[in-house]
Amino acid sequence: MITVISQTTAERNQETQELFQECKPLLDEGLTIGQAVKKVLGLKHNTFYNQAWFKEVKNYAKQQEENKG
Description:
By secondary structure, the protein is mainly alpha-helical. The chain is built from 3 helices and no strands.
């Protein structure tokens, strides 16, 4: 059985921001966004690198860095 989970853009953006906030301390320590996400989510693989949700987190992190500087 396949379960389809739908969410609004606002919900997806909220999840992206929350994941970034959890990763932020690790980024400040020098980890890459991929390493930080892997650690925060407890993942043991890198297959998420090509997933849309990771690209959104990565883009959000880049925007935050650009806004900071």
